[in-house]
Amino acid sequence: MSTGRLEAFSDAVIAVAATLLVLNLVVPAPGSQHSLAHDLGHQWPAYAAYAISFLTIGIIWINHHVMIGRLREPDHSIMILNLLLLMTIGVLPFATNLLSTYLTKSHGQQLAAAVYAGAFLLMATAFGTLNWHILMHRSDLLRAKLSREERRRILVTSASGLGPYVIATGLAFVSSYASLAICGALALFYALPVASGLGRGAPVG
Amino acid sequence: MSTGRLEAFSDAVIAVAATLLVLNLVVPAPGSQHSLAHDLGHQWPAYAAYAISFLTIGIIWINHHVMIGRLREPDHSIMILNLLLLMTIGVLPFATNLLSTYLTKSHGQQLAAAVYAGAFLLMATAFGTLNWHILMHRSDLLRAKLSREERRRILVTSASGLGPYVIATGLAFVSSYASLAICGALALFYALPVASGLGRGAPVG
Amino acid sequence: MSTGRLEAFSDAVIAVAATLLVLNLVVPAPGSQHSLAHDLGHQWPAYAAYAISFLTIGIIWINHHVMIGRLREPDHSIMILNLLLLMTIGVLPFATNLLSTYLTKSHGQQLAAAVYAGAFLLMATAFGTLNWHILMHRSDLLRAKLSREERRRILVTSASGLGPYVIATGLAFVSSYASLAICGALALFYALPVASGLGRGAPVG
Amino acid sequence: MSTGRLEAFSDAVIAVAATLLVLNLVVPAPGSQHSLAHDLGHQWPAYAAYAISFLTIGIIWINHHVMIGRLREPDHSIMILNLLLLMTIGVLPFATNLLSTYLTKSHGQQLAAAVYAGAFLLMATAFGTLNWHILMHRSDLLRAKLSREERRRILVTSASGLGPYVIATGLAFVSSYASLAICGALALFYALPVASGLGRGAPVG
After folding, report:
1. Which residues 99-128 in chain D show a CB within 8 A of chain C?
2. Subunits with at least 3 CB pairs below 8 A relative to chain C?
3. At C160, is the secondary structure helix, strand, or coil?
4. Interchain CB contact of A35 with B (< 8 Å)
5. Which end of chain D is more exposed for a tag (fewer CB within 10 A), N or C?
6. What's the pLDDT at D159?
7. What is the spatial distance between Cα A137 and Cα A126, in angstroms, rounded to a whole number?
């Protein structure tokens, strides 16, 4: 198994997960008593969640290539940990749908926001675990020799996204909007040019 | 990150978005009081929207390769602008569904047509922005050196799709059918052999 | 644009169309008054249509590569005709769903079978048109020089699937089961080893 | 047709099938009389089935590459048997959905578990058949010459997953939970490092 095939399969899963997000944008039923403009406007949480999820999945895709690009070839353990990472990415359309449905509801709002931020936290954890496994346990499979110092530095940068997602998950039980705002801010931060030097090694957003 | 990987991921998102359009073709419920022929015929807006959206997505795919084919390698800013472009393409199955549902309804018809044409306008704008960024800001990343004159000419051709989409979006509030006709005519125009010389540089929208 | 990219995009659309067929297999609602075995058994048209459509799409994929494999590079006209072919493939999950829903209904059964066979006919026509355009109009783009005789022979073999689909479409108005049987027999025929010499040039049906 | 194209198409079908699994995770309707936490918790069979199916599909993907990687080039018979294998993989989102829906229901529970395990059995059978055909009938197409002894050993290892799936399918009629546990244990077993030497030749189950 070459890294090329590993990347091609991962690309496909990540691309399909991102594109399936559109299924969360629901066409209002024609028989509504409100105007279509009202009904569409009412769905703003779905648009916000679509944008944040798509951007976050896109950034994880970029970072995935940086991570796998360091490898000469994968072994069985790397392939399995990568599958687990893809499994957490594959679940994001569900978490996005949950948030879109409940963000403006009086009931379930906070749990939905916690599941949404928690799904990103899970993905970032799976990403960090694979990165840590590659850099610390299978550094013999790396293309270029990296000093222990460099590998540690990459991991610290990579783990920097975990903290904000922990906060966003906990904060959801206080304010679902604040939690969503953190998820959005993280996606934007990693998309910004300023993060590109740093971001190249950062794990999810 | 090579342009090959950027293209492979973009191809996958664009291909899935095009193929998801079929989910907008709804099988009439068997218990209907009308004949199946009547119920299927009644869905003609869905067929028209499917054909126009599929063709437009296909043409943007062709033009995307022309645009990325000029690059030696992408940088962070190009990858993020490309993600934003993919995000606008990913939204097209929703806009197509909205138009299919509301085109023949008395209520919401004009807004649905405006959202449909507006989604193409958004995509064309994202495409043009990325093309402009590559040609004007990151011309150092181009494979072949292009004079400022040549780059400007490509951008003008590329921007030529924006005008008709602006018109289609505005016109939707007067006549949703006229708006749809413009979107269809644009797709056909870029598909015609006559546009292939010109079209190679044109973004579609 | 290389044929490699054309194939990669076509592969993605064809693979997604084949995989979306599973959405036509509906899980019976738990509250049914019948046993699950009865409800699942009652859906046999959906299983038959899934198998026939998946196999037919798979064979068109094989033949697509044979067709594109003859090309040194595509031009604009080939790319647009290929898009039209992909558009007809993309519509198959809808036709499959329509047949699955109506095959055992007393009302709409024949039209549904005609649409199903007609969708294959449309696909075979789009395939034949592209093949004819390549071999007769753009033979300068072929990898290996083929005599007019050889090109004509390929086209005749390639067109041999059209006849049975015309018959299947017409026959649907007499017997939807007979129409479906022809579609199934064609898929099986092209899958058989005996058709592999012949089938390599045949369009699918 | 190169093995590269065969792998690319298979990758796409397998990746889409894995990603479509998320559609089985249903967002609880907002108007429920229970808390969202209760409604989400009630869906635990869907989460278990998602994880088991995703992991199993991922492992079959790994093993698919090992199998195809032995080939110098495919012939028509290999491509058709591969299509049949993909057809069985494509059906897994349906089997997963069926199990998710019925696992905790009093009615249909056992049949749903049998269909779920049976779908894996079908996939493993299709995998084993293709592997057997390649190794025993078309060994002239192998990259490296393997002795009859080595080929037989690979097939025995490869067939080792069939037994547990036969047991899981039969056991479903006694206990659907025990059946599901076997499916889960098999996925975990092949994912474990201990199975990687052995697992490289094992078909998934």
Report:
1. 101-102, 105, 107-108, 111-112, 115
2. B, D
3. coil
4. yes
5. N
6. 86
7. 16
Phi, psi of C71 (to 5 degrees): -85, 140
For C7, the closest of D5, D76, D98 (CB atoms) is: D5
Asked if residue D197 has pLDDT above 70, the reply is no
Please provide the DSSP assignment of C23-85 as one string: GGSPPPPTT-SS-HHHHHHTTHHHHHHHHHHHHHHHHHHHHHHHHHHTBS---HHHHHHHHHH
Question: What is the mean pLDDT for each group of 10 consecutive residues in chain A (205 residues)?
Answer: 89 97 95 92 95 97 93 94 98 97 92 98 96 94 92 89 95 96 95 58 39
ipTM: 0.91
Given CB atoms, is C42 within the 8 Å cutoff of chain B? no
> What are the tens digits of pLDDT across the range D129-141?
999 999 999 999 9
Distance of CA A137 to the CA centre of its chain: 24
* Residue A47: Cβ-neighbour burial (10 angstroms; 0-12, 13-18, 19+): middle
Q: Does D59 touch chain C (CB under 8 A)?
A: no
Domain ranges of chain C: 3-199
**In 3-state terms, what secondary structure has residue D33?**
coil
User: Which subunits have 3 or more CB–CB pairs within 8 Å of chain B?
Assistant: A, C
Q: Would you call D13 and C12 a contact, using CB atoms and an 8 Å cutoff?
A: no
The backbone torsions φ and ψ at residue C120, rounded to the nearest 5 degrees and listed phi first, read -65, -40
Question: Is there a contact between D66 and A1 if contact means CB atoms under 8 Å apart?
Answer: yes
Please list every residue in chain D whose beta carbon sits closer than 8 Å to the beta carbon of residue A108.
28, 30, 35-36
CB contacts of C7 in chain D (<8 Å) are 5
Quote the CA–CA distance of B6 and B123 in Å, as a whole number: 18
Instruction: Collect all residues of chain A within an 8 Å Cβ-Cβ radius of residue B5.
Output: 7, 11, 65
Provide the pLDDT confidence category of residue D202 given band limits of 50, 70 and 90.
Answer: very low
Mutation choice for A interface testing from B23, B57, B81, B83 by most A CBs within 10 A: B83
Residue A31 near chain B (CB below 8 Å): no
Taking CB atoms and an 8 Å limit, are A23 and D23 in contact across chains? yes
| C8, C37, C196 member nearest D111 (Cβ) | C37
Model pTM score: 0.93
- Interchain CB contact of D83 with C (< 8 Å): yes
Residue B161: is its pLDDT beyond 50? yes
Say what the pLDDT of residue A203 is.
38
Say how far apart CA C194 and CA D195 lie, in whole Å: 40
| Buried b / exposed e along C69-107 (16+ C-beta atoms within 10 A) | ebbeebbbbbbbbbbbbbbbbbbbbbbbbbbbbbbeeee
CA D137 to chain centre: 24
Which residues of chain D are within 8 Å of residue C33 when distances are taken between CB atoms? Answer: none
DSSP output for B99-150: HHHHTT-SSSHHHHHHHHHHHHHHHHHHHHHHHHIIIII-GGGBSS---HHH
Copy the structure tokens of residue C144: 């290996």
Q: What is the pLDDT of residues B39-88, one digit of tens each?
A: 999 999 999 999 999 999 999 999 999 999 999 999 999 999 999 999 99
Ranges of residues in chain C whose predicted pLDDT is under 70: 194-205
Q: Which tens digit of pLDDT belongs to each residue from C140-195?
A: 999 998 999 999 999 998 888 899 999 999 999 999 999 999 999 999 998 887 55
Chain B residue numbers with beta carbons less than 8 Å from the beta carbon of A193 are 76-77
Chain B contact for A58 (CB, 8 A cutoff): yes
Task: Give the number of other Cβ atoms within 10 Å of residue B200's Cβ.
Answer: 14
Distance of CA C13 to the CA centre of its chain: 13
What residue of D is the nearest CA neighbor of A17?
D19
Residue B188 contacts C, CB cutoff 8 Å: no
pLDDT at D1 over 80: no
Helix D76-90 / helix D3-20 crossing angle, nearest 10 deg: 10
